[in-house]
Amino acid sequence: MNVATTNAPFKEIDADLLVLFARPETSLADTFPGIEQAEADATESDTPVLFYADGQRLALVGIKDDEAETLRAAAAKGASTAQKLKAASVALALPDAGPEQTAALVEGFILGGYQFLDYKTGDNQPTSVETLTLHGSGIDEAVEAARIRAESACFARDLVNTSPHDKTPVLLAERAKKMATEVGLECEVWNKARVEKERMGGLLAVNRGSQDPPAFIILEHKPEHPVNERPIVLVGKAVVFDTGGLSLKPTKNSMDKMKADMGGGAAVLGAMRAVAALDLPLHVVALVPATDNRPGEKAYVPGDVVTMRSGLTVEVLNTDAEGRMILADALDVAKEHSPELTVSVATLTGAAVVALGTRVAAVLTSEDDDSLSRLDAFTAAGDRTGEWIAPLPMRAHYAEQLKSDTADIKNVGGREAGTITAAKFLEHFTRDDGEAAYPWVHLDIAGTAFLQGTTQPYRPSGGTGFGVRLLMDVLEHRVME
Predict the structure, then answer these.
(1) What contacts 288, CB < 8 A, 6 or more positions away?
(2) What is the average pLDDT value for the chain, to the nearest integer?
(3) Strand blocks (E) in 137-225
(4) Whole-model pTM?
(5) Percentage with pLDDT > 90 across the chain
(6) 180 with 167: CB under 8 angstroms?
(7) Which of 78, 104, 138 is the last residue of a domain?
(8) Alpha helix segments (H runs only) across 210-284
(9) Which DSSP string do the residues of 91-133 spell out, in sequence order?
(10) Do 243 and 206 form a contact (C-beta atoms < 8 A)?
(11) How is 406-463 classified by DSSP, letter by letter?
(12) Any catalytic annotation for residue 249?
């Protein structure tokens, strides 16, 4: 989508549709000089008020305040209206909007207007907005950054929504390579032979039942003068389809949406796209282990003991707890980069959905002197972006649930505190000789990465791209430190 800015008088803005944002009972004549007052007032209803003024087609969207989340939702209504009217060009106008408010409008409009049409056939394709114009001055940089963030979230949505047969690990790696070339990222992909050489026992175990080989995707953004001496490492789970393996999932409301089990990997790839497109002065590395999890002839089984890349042994009691197995190997690879921070992102546990629903993700971190500051940084980013997260405790006693009589640890900790025990499992692989190898934050986005049959403001059914803008906010604030 082409996005531009203008400070021309409202009446002179040339667009198929001009979307005005105003509080209830606002006078158009006073708020938008040059626009004649219409009979209808602004409302907070889901349906914007439509009318013509001197030949201009207008949509009036009511807002209760000018907070970023309010504006994203309002702009999404404008996008929906534009699609219904088949408008190819749209302008958005909010009186006295600053960079932050304008950026929220751009994000809400692009995210709210998202359509996944790759598998739609026939001539009756929906019309997409080609040009978006924002009214205001001094907002160009904020508008461009918002466009990149939103389109990168849409890139992640596309990956999630893609049919599983079109995103095998190898095909996903090819998509990552293509994206990396487009935005200027370094990209390396480890094939199965390299994964075997690296002794990535967790990734190989999960992949044993598959007919498609695994892939380990590495992306790097390293500008000439980064503000960080040591990189930030993003680790994303990419189980491109999860049957549960031999611990087979039920189909309804479970396996039927498991093409989304690579939502963490998609979020990391989307964030890296935005990092490079914005050319952040920050050294960032992404690690994305990719495989599917199927009950093939050689599939790993409950009772198997797997030796991980770190050398730890894991007793497998549930093959559907596969995401942590592949992330564990990636977290071990992260040690080689000596990161200042590692962030893992994954659709990891159904327990996160039970605890927090589909609007809020879980955030967890190792407990140390800096754990509260890390949690505060991420929850603040969630509040700013509308990608809300809630912290869960990581007390030492939760690790007791992972003790195994057979191996060093087991891969499940029972019904209680499932999201926490999954994170405690991962924590083992962020350590060397019992000491933290690096600071680490974990995001469990199982409930927020995919919506099935429901929608939320600026989040249509399907992949949501949750995590892209959250990670970008954290990284952009790191640059400003």
Answers:
(1) 176, 216, 217, 218, 219, 235, 236, 238, 265, 268, 269, 330
(2) 94
(3) 186-190, 215-221
(4) 0.96
(5) 86
(6) no
(7) 138
(8) 263-277
(9) EEE-TT--HHHHHHHHHHHHHHT----TT--SS-PPP---EEE
(10) no
(11) SSSEES---STTHHHHHHHHHHGGGEETTEESS-EEEEE-TTTSEESS--BTTB-SEE
(12) yes
Do 37 and 88 have their domain in common?
yes
Ordered DSSP codes for 257-273: GGGGGGHHHHHHHHHHH
Give me the pLDDT at residue 138, please.
95
pLDDT for 426: 98
Rounded CA gap, 315 and 412, in Å? 9
Collapsed DSSP state (helix, strand, coil) of residue 39: coil
224 & 80 share domain: no
Q: How far apart are CA 481 and CA 471, in angstroms?
A: 16
Query: 86 and 32 in one domain?
Result: yes
For 146-185, write each residue's pLDDT tens digit: 999 999 999 999 999 999 999 999 999 999 999 999 999 9
Q: How many CA atoms lie within 13 A of 200 on its CB side?
A: 32
Instruction: Answer for the pair 357, 456: CB distance below 8 angstroms, yes or no.
Output: no
Does 332 lie in the same domain as 246?
A: yes
User: Is the model's pLDDT at 125 over the cut of 80?
Assistant: no
152 within a domain of the structure (yes/no):
no
Residue 122 has pLDDT above 90, yes or no: no
For β-strands 232-236 and 341-346, DSSP reports them as parallel
46 pLDDT above the threshold of 60 = no
Q: Which domain, by its residues, includes 349?
A: 163-480
- In contact, 371 and 365? CB cutoff 8 Å: yes
In a domain, 182, yes or no: yes
The CA–CA distances, whole Å, from 147 to 11, 151, 335, 469 equal 25, 6, 33, 11
- Residue 283, classed as helix, strand or coil, is coil
In a domain, 403, yes or no: yes
131 and 176 fall within a common domain: no
Per-residue pLDDT at 43 exceeds 60? no
Same domain for 195 and 252, yes or no, is yes
Reported as a single tens digit per residue, the pLDDT across 422-473 is 999 999 999 999 899 999 999 999 999 999 988 899 999 999 999 999 999 9
Residue 41 has pLDDT above 50, yes or no: no
Task: List the CATH number of the domain containing 167.
Answer: 3.40.630.10
324 is catalytic: yes
Q: Please say which residue of 123, 138, 153 terminates a domain.
A: 138
Residue 193: helix, strand or coil by DSSP?
A: helix
**229 and 372 together in one domain:** yes
Catalytic annotation, pick one of 72, 237, 259, 324: 324
The active-site residue, picked from 11, 199, 249, 359, is 249
Task: Encode burial over 321-356: b for 16+ CB neighbours within 10 A, e otherwise.
Answer: bbbbbbbbbbbbbbbebebebbbbbbbbbebbbebb
- Number of domains observed in the structure of the chain: 2
Flag whether 148 is in a domain.
Answer: no
Judge if 234 and 325 occupy the same domain.
Answer: yes
pLDDT digit string (tens) for 263-312?
999 999 999 999 999 999 999 999 999 999 999 999 999 999 999 999 99
